[in-house]
Design a protein that fits this description.
five-stranded antiparallel sheet; 2 domains; single chain; OB fold (Dihydrolipoamide Acetyltransferase, E2P); 249 residues; alpha/beta; Rossmann fold
């Protein structure tokens, strides 16, 4: 079986090669860049199996596939997050997460040996766009100083973030109330718009914390959270329509 590795991090490439050789396979070539890989494919027959890193020093590996269109089966080696992996799964693309575990490598090769299927026909243009312009990432944790200690609060634990007396506070689903060192205006773009919504100038709420929503005066809405009861949470009139869209989506 002819195997080629395309990986720009030499330690990772050497480790993968050693693992493959320990399993009894011979690696025909280790390539590091898009340019080098295209040149190699132009003068060599396609390998049976290609281990392909995504982000290379001079581009992304999808550029190689676009130009040479190898018939090889492909196993991507990636350190990308779950968002990227969903794209792989949707396109039936095989992948191994770095650092590559021995058992996972053996399973991937055994799967190839059993099915011997060629590289699947995936939407190359969409994947190129995805990896060149990855989805934005949002704040997942808050590190809060309490005296001489630090406390970490995850975004899932947050019920609301509000401003009061020139301070910004975070309230949790464990009834914790903590002073933050950023303003609401600074925090708003850091928070996932799927999970958080700014209902007025002084309050941001978290979707999972909502207990009930009631109609309030002057075409406004009143939010009841599961634990936070300190102040009335009124959705300003100009935010009502956007809030309804947020709840629907």
């Amino acid at each position: 079986m002819k195997i080629v590795i395309i990986e720009d991090e030499l330690p990772s490439a050497r480790l993968l090669r050693r693992k493959l050789e320990e399993l009894g396979y011979t690696v025909s070539a280790v390539l590091q860049t898009v340019e080098e890989s295209i040149e190699w494919f132009m003068s060599n027959s396609d390998p049976d199996l290609l281990f392909l890193d995504i982000q290379l020093a001079d581009g992304i590996s999808f550029d190689i596939l676009e130009q040479v269109k190898p018939s090889s089966a492909i196993i991507f080696t990636t350190a990308y997050d779950e968002y990227m992996l969903r794209a792989f799964k949707q396109n039936s693309i095989d992948y191994l997460l770095k650092p590559i575990e021995d058992e996972e490598l053996e399973n991937a090769i055994e799967k190839f040996r059993q099915f011997r299927r060629p590289n699947p026909q995936f939407d190359l243009a969409s994947l190129q766009a995805l990896f060149r312009n990855p989805a934005p990432t949002f704040k997942e944790r808050f590190t809060i100083k309490i005296g001489q200690s630090l406390k970490v609060v995850t975004s899932q634990q947050v019920e609301c973030i509000y401003s009061e007396n020139k301070g910004t506070y975070l309230y949790t689903n464990e009834n914790g109330n903590y002073l933050l060192d950023q303003t609401l205006d600074a925090l708003t773009p850091q928070l996932s718009p799927k999970a958080f919504f700014r209902i007025n100038r002084s309050t941001i709420i978290q979707f999972d914390a909502i207990k009930n929503i009631a109609v309030h005066s002057n075409a406004r809405l009143k939010i009841y959270l599961k634990h936070y009861e300190s102040e009335e949470l009124i959705v300003s009139r100009e935010k009502v329509s956007a809030l309804k869209d947020w709840l629907d989506n």
